[in-house]
Amino acid sequence: MTYDIIVIGGGIVGLATALKLKEKNKDLKIALLEKESKLAQHQTGNNSGVIHSGLYYRPGSLKAQNCIKGYRMLLDFCDKEGVKYDLCGKIVVATRPKDLPRMEMLMERGIANGLTNIKKITSEEIKNYEPECSGLAGIWVPYTGIIDFVEVSNKYAEVFTQKYGGEIFLNHKVTNITVEGDIATVETTKQSFSAKKVVNTAGLYCDKIAGFTMKNLDYRIIPFRGEYSDIKKESHGLVKNLIYPVPDPDLPFLGVHFTRMMKGGLEAGPNSVWAFKREGYKKTDISISDMINSLAWPGFRKVIRKYWKSIGLGEYWRSFNKYAMVKSLQLMIPNLKKEDLVRGGAGVRAQACDRLGNLCDDFIILEHKNIINVLNAPSPAATSSLAIGDHISDRVLGYSS
User: Fold this and answer.
1) Measured between alpha carbons, how far is 381 from 397 in angstroms, rounded to an integer?
2) What angle do CA 378, 384, 399 make, to 5 degrees?
3) Number of domains forming the structure of the chain
4) Domain assignment of residue 205, given as a range
5) Are residues 370 and 291 in the same domain?
């Protein structure tokens, strides 16, 4: 089957990209390929559903640019299409003296990124926003909200197919890509597709897909499982909305936090442990080939040597020891008890790691021949999805380099 453009991956970034391409040229024949029987089954469907504001990201980075732009585009889309969201705001809490200079850096970044309504709050003022929360100081971020990103993804898909005539093929796992001249042929488990342009938004398998046409790739996806705990209903009063710690600036993770969910409920987490399988949502999920793939990467071996305490022993200890998780959360909510937590769900983050041992923090988009590969799109990719899709669609259509 012949198309103008093929998008690989039915998560929120792939769907947003397909939608943006159609918005810019409704005459394009576009196919989106997804290996699962439903859309948004992996990173999109297993995140905490937070609308991020752009507080954390280095000014000028792709994350900062696309988060702020994508934030506005997401809210506009949801208002137009009737997707519910709640801009409830959040507080970021400094619980230790070493967090205070980091908090100042966050304030500077937020203001540089255009978040003029954020403000520092004192230890006493924290109680005005979260009565059960304790900290040395904090930041109030009124822009942050909650949403169901699976609902958003399905709405993207609905507009893409019903309004613009785009095509979505489920249960089509990509097995190979070849390029001859200016035509790419994409093989799946069911049939082959050809197109002038291909966009790879395959998430946990984006490096595998890129490897079909890009040899000696400088990045590899390392899966990190984020495990959540649900807070029992009778203890929901401990948290009104969202409470985050001041993150470690050396790591691309935000730390365990409290999140009120759009569908109801309250969860805490996630911790971040190396998953022994690309889609390893359970502790017992193990793939020897996936483990070897990670350990064979020189960059990941450097990560292990550098962070074996912080993202090694410490995170695994929290994973297997409920008290350790509670102790981390009690830094923010002292009255939280071990009995308040029950096992929740988990997500797996597709974390790019380069050859030098860096856990890549910014979005990574590489173009090779007529294929655009999205090789790192973790949080805030869901919030940023329409902005990322806008950026990619411009590159596909030759509007920008």
Assistant:
1) 21
2) 110
3) 3
4) 1-85+145-218+362-401
5) no
Sign of CA dihedral 368, 372, 373, 379: positive
Pairing of strands 192-200, 371-376: parallel
pTM exceeds cut of 0.70: yes
Per-residue pLDDT of the chain in tens (401 residues, 90 and over written 9): 999 999 999 999 999 999 999 999 999 999 999 999 999 999 999 988 999 999 999 999 999 999 999 999 999 999 999 999 999 999 999 999 999 999 999 999 999 999 999 999 999 999 999 999 999 999 999 999 999 999 999 999 999 999 999 999 999 999 999 999 999 999 999 999 999 999 999 999 999 999 999 989 999 999 999 899 999 999 999 999 999 999 876 666 778 899 999 999 999 988 888 999 999 999 899 999 999 999 999 999 999 888 766 555 556 556 666 788 899 899 999 999 999 999 899 999 999 999 999 999 899 999 998 999 999 998 899 999 999 999 999 999 987 54
Strands (E), 270-386: 273-274, 341-354, 364-368, 371-376
What's the CA gap between 40 and 38, in Å, rounded?
A: 7
Tokens of 24: 């810019």
Q: Where is 356: in which H helix or E strand?
A: none
Are 237 and 300 in the same domain? yes
- Estimate the crossing angle of helix 62-81 against helix 381-397, to 10 degrees: 100
- Within 36-183, residue ranges assigned H as helices are 62-81, 99-112, 123-129, 149-158
Same domain, 194 and 238: no
Segment 181-189 long-range contacts (CB within 8 Å, at least 24 positions apart):
182/370, 183/370, 184/6, 184/213, 184/369, 184/370, 184/371, 186/6, 186/8, 186/33, 188/33, 189/35
Residues 169 and 134 placed together within one structural domain of the fold: no
Name beta bridge partners: 86: 146
